[in-house]
Design a protein that fits this description.
This protein is mainly α. The protein contains ten helices and no strands.
Length: 225
């Protein structure tokens, strides 16, 4: 055996500890998702295995085909549970503006992830299905949520009803219903984050909140200040 035969061409990632099948699937999906977002392209199964610290064959023991793995990546991306959990964690007692900035930040992060994955996978519209993520079953690796706690996505209404309550204290300051304010924020966040609509210059959460709350016209109050 020569010295060369003991030398690897590339560093070998340390193998991950053995995980239950469900957790292993989740780890593979999230490794693939991270590479897709980082590179903007679909990685090879070897690259995914290296990122996950597993043997390449382990991927095909968890998923029949690479297409099934990519389906799982899309399901992970559109799952409502993570964004719902983040929205629930917003401090409702803080002042209005930072509270709304926190809300927009969560939405913007979600939209950015969705846009990244759709671009890399060549999707022109959100896929249908992924019912396994509706209530977030244990197989998704997320905290199971009740139906009324679903997140922002195709099932916007349940989460919106819950979120309206965190604006009750400031409702008398608005010229519209709190529900409409959240709708304005969501629409502007979507368009201000989409790389095509925003012309590659995404709006910051602070700018989005300022536009919705203050507009762009100079009022007497603004002149005085």
């Amino acid at each position: 055996m020569s010295e060369c035969s003991l030398t690897y061409y590339r560093p070998v990632s340390p193998r991950a500890n053995a995980l239950p099948p469900t957790e292993r699937r989740v780890a593979i999906v999230r490794s693939a998702l991270g590479l897709i977002r980082e590179r903007g392209t679909i990685p090879t199964t070897r690259e995914i295995a290296e990122a996950a610290g597993i043997a390449e064959g382990t991927i095909f023991r968890a998923f029949d085909t690479k297409e099934r793995l990519m389906d799982a990546v899309v399901g992970e991306t559109f799952c409502p549970a993570p964004v719902s959990i983040q929205l629930h964690a917003i401090d409702h007692d803080q002042p209005l503006r930072p509270k709304l900035v926190a809300f927009v930040t969560v939405l913007q992060d979600r939209f950015t992830e969705i846009f990244d994955v759709m671009s890399a996978l060549g999707l022109s519209a959100p896929p249908a299905g992924f019912e396994e993520h509706r209530g977030c079953s244990p197989e998704t690796g997320h905290v199971p949520l009740e139906e009324q706690d679903l997140g922002v996505g195709s099932t916007w209404d349940p989460e919106r009803r819950r979120l309206v309550g965190f604006l009750d204290h400031d409702a008398d300051r608005f010229t519209c219903a709190p529900e409409e304010l959240l709708r304005y924020l969501r629409l502007l966040t979507f368009s201000g984050t989409h790389p095509g609509i925003s012309e590659g210059r995404p709006l910051t959460p602070e700018a989005i909140v300022d536009l919705v709350l203050d507009g762009v016209l100079i009022t007497r109050t603004k002149k005085a200040s």
